[in-house]
Amino acid sequence: MRKKIALIGGGQIGQILAMIAAQKELGDIVILDIPELENPAKGKALDLMEMAPHGNYDAAITGSSDYKDIAGADVVIITAGRPRQAGMTREDLLAVNLDIITKVAAGVKQYAPQAFCIIVTNPLDAMVYAFYKLTGFPRNQVVGMAGTLDTARWRAFIAMELGVSVNDVAGTVLGGHGPDMVPLPRLTTVGGVPLTEIATKEQIDKLATRTREAGTEIVKLFGKGSAFFSPAWSAIVIAESYLKDKRRVLPCAALCQGEYGVKGLFIGVPVMIGAKGMEKVYEIKLNDEEKAMLQKTVGVVQKTVEETKL
Ligand code: APR
């Protein structure tokens, strides 16, 4: 039997998620949006069905505004919520998106209580925390997509700067999904060669700053709305690792229970995603400078999470 993927939110990211999931034949797809946008969700689903002959995929893709239609989903990817506009921080979205996540959590808890859930809605670290608290799902069943995107951006900028294949750039970005996130140049390699040996300190600082501000750079360019191609692919990578038990090690916002000295918060850390969901958190021995940076981003996440009052 085919797997089932429920996409809660059928906007910019949701529609790209549907397209990539279909092209990768990850399973049947339900795009769920609010009743006012049920027809656009159905329209996008039908459009994707009509793309299938050229896209070479078999998948049933449907649109809905009724949570009954997500019943039995293996994976739920949540993008429901407002995106940033120019001049806004992710934290500015807290009140409006918390309200949306509260409704989404109720629907997912009722109709897809076994699903592995990937949260994309911003402010990411607070929204994944809220979803976890509101559903009461176990720790392994809920992750936030942010580190995977931040690391993709870090890798992309390095490849662009050095003129090398992005496939050969490996690294990770820790922390919250905001300007205080922590790229780790010390542990980044290009085809096995340490980044610190092939790039100057100035280059590395510039790349780290660009990574931290990458979302804002896109928001400024778009004028309206935020990034959607790269967030969608990042969520798909996590979903695919779960569905196929690939056991990939990816940076995700995961509930820390003492790892990195953090308790009870979702923070971007390297985790293994397999058939049981978020199966393992990997702890890295950080140096003092990295530890201080991580502490700073954790403080920012803590503050935003406190505002959810959950
Ligand atoms: N249930 C389901 N869908 C909802 C709900 C709800 N309660 N409330 C809003 N939505 C839908 C909107 O109708 C819209 O179609 O969520 C969709 C969001 O799509 P966009 O506005 O295009 O936003 P997008 O760019 O996809 O970003 C979604 O991800 O990266 C984050 O900051 C970003 O929080 C934003 C989210």
Query: Beta fraction of the residues?
Result: 15-25%
Rounded radius of gyration (Å): 19 Å
CATH class of the largest domain: Alpha Beta
Multimerization state: single chain
As laid out across the biggest beta sheet, the strand order is: 3-2-1-4-5-6
Structural class given helices, strands, pairing? alpha/beta
* Distance from first to last alpha carbon: 38 Å
Q: How many structural domains are formed by the residues?
A: 2
Overall mean pLDDT score? 97
Q: Which homologous superfamily in CATH is the superfamily of the largest domain? A: Lactate dehydrogenase/glycoside hydrolase, family 4, C-terminal
Write a concise keyword list for the protein shown above.
310 residues; alpha/beta; Rossmann fold; L-2-Hydroxyisocaproate Dehydrogenase, Chain A, domain 2; 2 domains; 3-stranded antiparallel sheet; 44% helix; 20% strand; globular
Question: Could you walk me through the main structural features you see in this protein, from its secondary elements to its overall organization?
Answer:
With 310 residues, this protein is an alpha/beta fold. It has two domains: 4-146, Rossmann fold; 147-306, Lactate dehydrogenase/glycoside hydrolase, family 4, C-terminal (L-2-Hydroxyisocaproate Dehydrogenase, Chain A, domain 2, Alpha-Beta Complex), CATH 3.90.110. The chain is 44% helix and 20% strand. The chain has helices spanning 12-23, 38-55, 94-111, 124-135, 147-162, 195-198, 201-212, 214-222, 229-243, 288-308; strands at residues 4-8, 28-32, 61-64, 75-78, 116-119, 142-144, 169-170, 173-174, 182-183, 189-190, 193-194, 248-257, 263-274, 277-281. Strands 3-2-1-4-5-6 form a six-stranded parallel beta sheet. Helix 1 runs parallel beside helix 2, helix 1 packs across helix 9 and helix 3 (94-111) packs parallel to helix 4 (124-135). It is globular. The model has no long low-confidence stretch (mean pLDDT 97). It binds adenosine-5-diphosphoribose. Adenosine-5-diphosphoribose (APR) is lined by residues 8-14, 32-34, 37, 79-84, 93, 97, 100, 103-104, 120-122, 225-226, 228, 231.
